[in-house]
């Protein structure tokens, strides 16, 4: 049986920005949200496959994924490493949106522990 695959958004889920703006420098101000990093790391330790899936830079670089990777990938990898975020994959280029409607989506505000992830998965499988 394959491990549970979980995608975590980055900005405003695993970290928060103290500076807004339309330049890549706003990502230098990011600070970790330790409570969610702890949940992510617990999922990793429990054998889940963790992907960090981010729209970081999509607006600034007009959805040019190659430019996003050139300009932000190393910064982002270094931040994840510095914050101790355990993960298997980092995927940049998630489409930006204002609201996600999805049968497997869970609001990060509803996740307080790894048990909340387990319950969310169980609920999604009952449908």
Attribute tags:
127 residues, alpha/beta, Rossmann fold, three-stranded parallel beta sheet, 3 helices, globular
Short summary of the structure?
The chain has three helices and five strands, in the order βββαβαβα. It is of the alpha/beta class and 127 residues long.
Helix content: 25-40%
Q: Total number of helical segments?
A: 3
Q: What fraction strand? A: 5-15%
* Distance, first to last CA: 20 Å
The CATH C-level class name: Alpha Beta
What features would you describe in this structure?
- With 127 residues, the protein is of the alpha/beta class.
- It has one domain (5-99): Rossmann fold, CATH 3.40.50.
- Helix content is 34%, strand content 14%.
- The protein contains 3 helices and 5 strands, in the order βββαβαβα.
- Strands 1-4-5 form a 3-stranded parallel beta sheet.
- Helix 2 links the parallel strand 4 (49-54) and strand 5.
- The model has no long low-confidence stretch (mean pLDDT 91).
């Amino acid at each position: 049986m394959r491990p549970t695959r979980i995608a975590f958004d980055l900005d405003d889920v695993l970290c928060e920005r103290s500076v807004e703006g339309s330049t890549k420098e706003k990502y230098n101000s990011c600070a970790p949200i330790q409570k969610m990093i702890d949940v992510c790391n617990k999922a990793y330790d429990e054998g889940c496959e963790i992907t960090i899936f981010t729209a970081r830079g999509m607006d600034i670089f007009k959805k040019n994924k190659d430019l996003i990777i050139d300009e932000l990938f190393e910064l982002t990898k270094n931040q994840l490493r510095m914050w101790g975020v355990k993960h298997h994959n980092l995927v940049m280029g998630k489409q930006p949106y204002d609201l996600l409607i999805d049968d497997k989506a869970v609001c990060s505000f509803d996740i307080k522990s790894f048990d909340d992830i387990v319950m969310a998965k169980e609920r999604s499988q009952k449908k």
